[in-house]
Design goal:
Largest sheet: 6 strands, antiparallel
Shape: elongated
Helix content: 25-40%
Strand order of the largest sheet: 1-5-6-3-2-4
Structural class: alpha+beta
CATH architecture of the largest domain: 3-Layer(aba) Sandwich
CATH topology of the largest domain: Chemotaxis protein chec
Length: 312
Amino acid sequence: MTVLDTAPGAPARTREPQVELYDFRRPLTLVREHARHLEMAFGRFARQFGTQLTARLRVVTHLELEQIALHTYDEYVSLLPTPTAMVLCTVEPNRQTGVVQLPVATTMVWIDYLFGGDGRGDDRPGRELTEIELTLVRELLQHALSDLEYAFAGITRIALDVRSVQYNPQFVQAAAASDAVLVATFTLRMGEREDTITLMLPAEQMIAALQVADGTVSASPEDRRRAELAHADLGRAVSAVPVEVGVRFAPVTVQPRDVLALAVGDVLPLTHPSTEPLDVVVDDVVLAQAAIGSHGPRLACRVVAVTEENRA
């Protein structure tokens, strides 16, 4: 900080507020009750995973759940180190893709233990798994991930089938960039070694299952009444929001040189037939079709058809 910044009478520096868009169709916030159910399920899975590794590697192993969060897939990938081992799995029953992410050095330690070593592993940068090593890691993870079905039995039926391993997160398209994904972060302790691993699952199926599990049966009458009041308040608030409605002719295609040469008095012919209705649009979404008319001294349009699928 300079002397000028602290001088009396110096104007205070204000930071422009940053507005972050929120997509109500894909909320990235977990309901508290849903988060609690997921923490219990992932906690059970972590205990079983640690037990499986202890039995197979013959070294005391603990897996502890650190946090659960909702991200877009693009956000999740941006948080991962490069290189890292991304184990791609098929999520049953919807055949989507899940990811088990862990440091490559951790898999080398596992392989060392499996071959009877002391767990020194191989920390050479850029090292990738050989075919034999990949087979061993795939078999080890497949046994450990089989406990996921038991852990989530109270929420939904889920199973992971290990497919392949990739090492550069930026080149892995396990989901669309804007898709919501559920990310569980764990701390893995093997002897004196400590690593961070993550498990990524598609969020849509899990959240839908949690909502079904909640249902109206688990909610008290008071909770249902509050939910109904909140829904009614939201409906009234949304219905009072002003929106801009426009009518649109069919677009016409012209060359850039024609656009640059436009001058006062030029005529731009439209391809819209005079007998065809115009599109009624809100935020570039077609809601209806309307015929051209007038209302007193003003131009007007009469709605002749409504596009039902876009009104939701």
